[in-house]
Amino acid sequence: MRSYLIIAALSLTIISCGKKLDILPQQNVEESVVLSTDESVKKVLNGAYEALSSTDLYGGNMLMYSELLGANGELRWAGTFNQPREVYNKAMLTTNSFITASWLSAYNVINICNNILSATDVVVAADRDRVKGEALFIRGAMYFELVKLFARPYSAGNVGSNPGVPIILTPTRSIGEANYVARSSVQATYDQIIKDLTDAEGLLPTGSGTRAQKAAAAAMLSRVYLQTANYAGARDAANRGIGYGGFTLTQPYAKAFNSGRTAAADPASTLPEGVFQVVVTAQDGGNSMHTYWSITLYGARSGDVAIEQKHLDLYAANDARRALFYTGTGNSLTNATIRTGKWKFIYSSLSIIRLAELYLTRAEANLRLGTSVGATPLEDINQTRVKHGGLTPLLTVDLNAILLERKLELAHEGHSIHDAKRLKQSIALGAETFAFDANQLVLPIPQREINASKNVIVQNEGYQ
Amino acid sequence: MRHSKLLFLAAILFCCQLAWSQAKTITGKVSDAKTGTGISGVSVLLKGSRTGTVTNADGTYSLSVPSPSSILIFSSVGFETVEYDAGSSLINVSMVAESSKSLDEVVVVGFGTKIKRDVTGNIARVKGSEIANTPVPQFTQALQGRAAGVFVEANNGKVGEGVKVRIRGAGSLSASNSPLYVVDGIPIAEGGVGINPLADINFNDVETFDILKDASAAAIYGSRAANGVVLITTKKGKSGKTAVNVNAQYGSNKPTGHREFLNAAQYVELLREAAINSDIIDGIDPLDPDQYEDSWLEYVENKMTSISGWSDWRNLETNTNWERQAYNNSARTKIIDISAQGGSEKTKFYASGSYSDQDGILIGNKFQRMSGRLNLEHDASDRLKIGMNMGLSRTYANRVAADNGFQTPLQLVALAPITPVRDLDGNLYDDPVTTYYNGLVELESVRRSSIAFRNLGNIFLNYKLIKNLYFRTEFGLDIQNQTDDYYAGPASLTGSGINGYGSSDWYKSVNYNTNNYFNYHTTLQQIHDIDATLGMSYQKYSSENVSVAGQDFPTDDLSRLASAGQITSGSSSVTESAFLSYFLRTNYKYNNKYLLSLSGRIDGSSRFGRLSRYGFFPSASVGWVISEEDFLAGAGAISFLKLRASWGITGNAEGFGNFAQLGLWGSAKYNATSGLVPTQLANPDLKWEKSEQTDIGIDFGLFNNRLTGEIDYYVRNTRDLIYNVPVPGTSGFANQTVNVGSMQNKGVEFVLNSSNINARDFKWNTSFNLAYNKNKITKLDGTQTLIPGNDGRYLNSLMVGQAIGIFYGPKYAGVDPLTGDALWFESDGKTTTNEYNSAGNFIVGNPNPDWIGGLTNTLSYKGIELSFLFQGVFGNQIQNGAGAFMSTGADWWDNQTIDQLQRWRNPGDITNVPQARFNYSNGTGASSRYTENGSYVRLKTVTLGYYLPATVIKKLKLSSARVYISGVNLATFTKYTGWDPEVNTDYRASNRNQGGDFYAAPQIRSVTFGLNLGF
Question: ipTM beyond 0.90?
């Protein structure tokens, strides 16, 4: 009998508790945890900025695509990487890994924003509008970048039927039929962008610094309206952006960029003119504009993007902005290849929207509409011309003068192809010329996306 | 009365006579046939009775037997049982060590043991004694060629590093393809980055390796058994006089192979010719002094002047053989092993200590291991047995960089033979005098050491509850602790520009395990034999990583991170997983003829999704011992014949991480503050890969079992392969880990063991194994049928219907005799083109061998024993990923292989080597041009030993003494023109990426002298 008791007792040892299998990771948390408290939702918002600052997006490549597509003989890609070269050559493969990464990263940011927007209830009331506004701003900005790069331009017309990009407004929890989303029209995409940014502008506080605020949302909206040729909208948004205050035109010009620092090791600081900027520190963020546009001497590659003399010739000889260019390759400053000084150093921020742009947008829109909302076009154009260019003020102004000033002031900051498209300017590459609405000036939808969506997402024309 | 007294006396005398003739006393000595030493504890039993005794410490015995016509049975663990007629009063017995191939030996199965004769699954056994004292650091290497269907391949000849083991082919695309290793009942940890947990084990402590190959043998290990299971049982003590054994080995190591490169004269000629050819393409005649300026020839000649350093290439002043610089000419192996075993009837022990120090053949490569072991067993009562097995080890490794690093020694072969090693002041030349980084700088400026401590042990308790019912509990602990220190001084590639770079990585892993099970065994009516095992096990793994890195060091002497001017990164992380399992196995044997075995295991793991946390892994097998049937009884030649068939399902839960099933968010940093970002999409359905295997086999013994063998046919279908399936990126994610693909392995295995000659003084045994396996991917993610893998160097692709990692890419068509252009076939397979991008894609090779095999012969004559193993791999191809650097007709500065002397030079030349063109790549794209047959046969090990005669050892007061010489990889027979056909370059070795060669070090050929003393 005793034996059987022992057997019974020992039998218990082989019955164990299945709860021992509930092991959770220690470097990661489950999604249910992430969106449950005020503190954690704010950390997710910080994560959204981190994702936004990826080199695939505002950390550089989104700006670079625009500049390489719109090079127009004023700069050239001289580096060894194939992916930017394909963009520069307007001969992009649907498998281009840079483009694929940018697409994926943009939707990663959008998904993070959708997560935040789904959980604003747990944010303390005092911060709720700000958190919601920042998420809407970031989401709207990403859709705007996507539609500009991956869809036919708004200026090409047929906006109701030309495909824009898929619009996702809810967070992804699992993969099901609902995740196979087709592209919305260009118009529908722009409608969503305007809604997000308008809401954001209403919710955000005023101020400055590295987080989105009212001026950033208004400035982004002014860009959106400008793309859609809604000059009144662009004018008023730019005017509001200037009016919110908090930013000043820098002197010297270099202070608007990291180049204003005396050395690469300067302590990180924000750019005083940056209405919106993404931060790069030694610990986080990336700056691929620095990587490809600067040289080894300043910690970059040997110099992949070379500026052509044709571009320099556009500046007046005494324009201070011309002095920001330098020559060099690798570790040497004696080589004759021209480089832009805007991206010389890696830290502390990439300027995404500068105050100068708002003056120039307001000037252009006022001029086109024959109005003087906020200031006259002449007053606005002389702002940058005098403060940044160190030139004498103009006495009269026309549209061409404003567009040239805009081109020079904002050169190599990611505006090239977008301005060319809205202004219906063609782009030259050697003997070839591409019309503003050419298929080759639109990035291909990544092949992996066509495949993974089971062809629900359609490829752009010219890439099928 | 007097008469009656006489009668009584007579009767007594008669009785005495009778008694005398009945109670005969037999004495003698039992000794080891090999060593001549006495064996203690041998059971001497009168057949058919309970009368018996055991031998004394010196092997002598004395036993009274009732009649001279009786038979004595001598048996002892580890020796073949022998029977003798008790005809003489002095019977000296010489016992032969049991060969591992005996049908009566007891093999280890999961949670129990079984007599080989009754096994219905497929279990290959390698005895520790077969591979003892093989001078290689890891037991996996020692097992190469020893067991049918077990493919072993070292990545390269770096000592103590990665070794691929595949049992019956690869079953997985992205999870692990390595077997589960179980040491004394504990599944051991897989190890972290750069950690090889198997190198910690001193295999001289191992009694047996039992390799569970088919599903019925392995299914008791459930979700981790799909790639087979290797059960390692360490040595146990025997009661009797304490036997001490000392083994010492000393030897030298050399590379197995050599690849011939151009000498200075050939290099200069080739480079100039290539430059001239490129100039001609540009429409320039560089030999015309007016056109020389800015020509390729000028560029090449100027560069040759600069890379010749102090010497003049025009007079061929320097002729450096860089390959030789990569090798350590005084590489040695030193091994000392001491073991002791013995004990009383109740308490037995085995203890050992070992030190092994092996230099790699590459400069700066070294592996050392110190280990100790204590195994104890104690019978507390006739019901209760307790014991422990405890192993400790410390390994120290000096690693060299991965094969693709400029720092790895063998990349020195890329340097020009016209470049001197050192300048006139004796300093090493480096880039830009050397055309690439001079890897010799590493030896002087870089320290790379890795020290690992391992504690692998368990305690157990075995209790007899009632008759035939036992309970066993085991608790095991496996602790690893490793520190990797790295310092690269300012002169080195990594440390340059930042004033030196240092890192320190600390890894700790704790794995504990408990097994608790009942075993019941009974025989009913002498014909129904029933054996059942029921139990559970729980295992938890946790591992921790801490790392820190810094730069800017004041001097090379202060290489610890305390001296770093800047700490550039630091991190720590933890990960855990657990398995909870229940298992049941029943074996039934009817009349020794019919065998049935059923098993089932339920495995739960934290690694599986919430909706599929537990899996069930059943197996069934049957056997029919035909030789026990009446119709075969007395069928002369056939002494044993068994048919068996098995089926079962096993799983694979290793190699896809601990948390692939969860929807996760991880930390992010923005503007020096922390944030959270999504990192992984949840898959609550994620589970193990599922492998279903059917095996049909025959075991046979002929001529009184002097020839035994096994033939097996198996089909293994693996489903639900883990795969990262792309999902719409608009979801915010790129892919999701799901169970989707499938793969098949089919094969045949043959095993033959023969006792060719078994005379008193001369014995010759042969064992042979041969296995064929065909691997086939049957499904990828369901939509793709091809994932091409041409990355410019290699062609490893995934293709439905083909083996994993097949070479798929352009097919080289030789050289156009008119132009010297390299040609490839277009997709029609007939037309040729000199445009690489127009070439079609073909299956041009397969890294998976068709056949693998091994042939061992052991011959002994008196005290001399010779044993040698040939091991072979057949039907696979190797892709030289470095072909586009080393065999390109001087496309760049790399020194070229000697075959480039066969290059095309004049119209009409028929050759396979295109015209040399500097910088105008002629035929350098990855193609079948760099694919070669990888088959080989290798004289893997040879051991010649001599046992000193008993008279001598007696004088020396030893119990045995043996001197031996042992060689590893002495000869290789292959058509492969590279260094060594056993290759899988380390920097990319994976499930898919196999069969690549990239400056991979050849294997180690070593010759060692050894001395083995018994006390």
Answer: yes
Q: Which residues of A touch B604 (CB under 8 A)?
A: 18, 21
Q: Which positions in chain B touch A28 (Cβ < 8 Å)?
A: 659, 662, 664-666, 679-680
pLDDT tens per residue across span B634-661: 667 888 999 999 999 999 998 888 888 8
Answer yes or no: are the C-beta atoms of A99 and A136 closer than 8 Å.
no
Q: Does B734 contact A104 at a Cβ distance shorter than 8 Å?
A: yes
- How far is B958 from A230, CA to CA, in rounded Å? 104
SS3 B969: strand
Is B577's CB within 8 Å of A168's CB?
no
Measure CB to CB from residue B664 to each of A3, A28, A168 and give the nearest one: A28
Contact between chains at A285 and B670 (C-beta distance less than 8 A):
yes
| B468 min Cα distance to partner chain A (Å) | 12
**Which residues in chain A have their CB less than 8 angstroms from residue B668's CB?**
46-47, 50-51, 284
Mutation target for A interface from B496, B544, B676: give the one with most A CBs within 10 A.
B676
Q: N- to C-terminal Cα distance for chain B?
A: 65
CA distance B483 to B206: 27
Contacts of B730 in chain A (CB under 8 A): 107, 110, 166, 168, 179, 181, 449, 453, 457
Measure Cα distances from B912 to A290, B271, B815, B909 in Å.
Answer: 47, 19, 5, 10
Provide, as residue numbers in chain A, all residues whose Cβ is less than 8 Å from the Cβ of B673: 46
In this structure, what DSSP letter does residue B37 have?
-
Four-point Cα dihedral B622, B623, B629, B635, nearest 10: 150
Q: What is the C-alpha separation between B490 and B487, in angstroms, rounded?
A: 10
Say if pTM beats, i.e. exceeds, 0.90. Answer: no
Residues in A closer than 8 angstroms to B681, CB to CB, are: 172, 174-175
Helix, strand, or coil here: B654? coil
- Tens of pLDDT, residue by residue over A332-377, are 887 789 999 999 988 878 999 999 999 999 999 999 999 999 999 9
All residues of chain A having their beta carbon less than 8 Å from the beta carbon of residue B677 are: 44, 47-48, 50-51, 108, 112
Facing residue for B662 by CB, picked from A30, A104, A283: A30
Question: From CA B721, how far away is CA B717, in angstroms rounded?
Answer: 11
Partner-chain residue, chosen from A20, A104, A283, that has the shortest CB–CB distance to B538 = A20
When scoring A2, A22, A31, A165 by the number of chain B Cβ atoms within 10 A, the one with the most, hence best to mutate, is A31
The identity of residue B170, as a single letter, is A
- Which amino acid makes up residue B776? K
pLDDT confidence band for B542 (50 / 70 / 90): very high
Residues 6+ apart with CB under 8 A from A430: none
B168 burial via Cβ count (<10 Å: 0-12, 13-18, 19+): buried
For residue B677, give the chain A residue with the closest CA: A47
Of A376-385, B14-23, B498-507, B524-533, least confident by mean pLDDT is: B14-23
Name the band, by pLDDT with cuts 50, 70 and 90, for residue B839: very high
